[in-house]
Write a structure and sequence with these properties.
The chain is of the alpha+beta class. About 20% of the residues lie in helices and about 30% in strands. A hairpin with a 5-residue loop joins strand 6 and strand 7.
Length: about 160
């Protein structure tokens, strides 16, 4: 199953440590730099320009991406159409668990079999049922995780 972005903002919330605006070179056009010295040009999406201007980052020391904004408490990438390859290739979760309200409740990070959550019920379920599961095949392991969390009333995206 293909991962679908849930607009949680996890990927963008720390990108300010990696990506920074070097200069504005035109109206809504920016030269950005990576921590390794590489540079790229990005343009604020036409449908997000008002959002970009309305919510200028007040804390210049933030670790969030400088193009991350909020609309109705949902993180929005204002340069989504021209976002860097680094962002395009970012896979934040191998498995994402949502609660009954559709909010992020936990996740298995990409490339791991570890689990992170602040939901005590989910953590207990993981600890008692899934943490020590020995299923070598990744697809079968993911299916098992999905089945356990789904039976407990959570929605699983993988």
């Amino acid at each position: 199953m293909t991962f679908v972005c849930q607009c949680c903002g996890d990927c963008c919330s720390t990108m300010g440590e990696i990506i920074s605006i070097q200069e504005q070179i035109g109206t809504y056009i920016f030269r950005i730099g990576y921590i390794d010295g590489e540079e790229r040009i990005v343009t604020v999406d036409s449908d997000k320009r008002e959002l970009f201007c309305d919510q200028q980052q007040e804390d210049k020391k933030t670790i969030a991406c400088p193009f991350l904004r909020q609309r109705a408490h949902i993180p929005i990438c204002t340069v989504h159409a021209s976002r860097p390859e680094l962002c395009r290739n970012y896979l934040c979760s191998r498995i994402l668990i949502l609660n009954k309200d559709g909010e992020k409740a936990g996740r298995v990070p990409q490339g791991t079999r570890s689990f992170t959550t602040e939901d005590r019920t989910l953590l207990d379920l993981w600890s008692c049922t899934l943490r020590d599961t020995r299923i070598p095949d990744d697809e079968l392991w993911e299916k098992n995780v999905e089945d356990v969390f789904t039976r407990a009333g959570y929605r699983v995206i993988r």
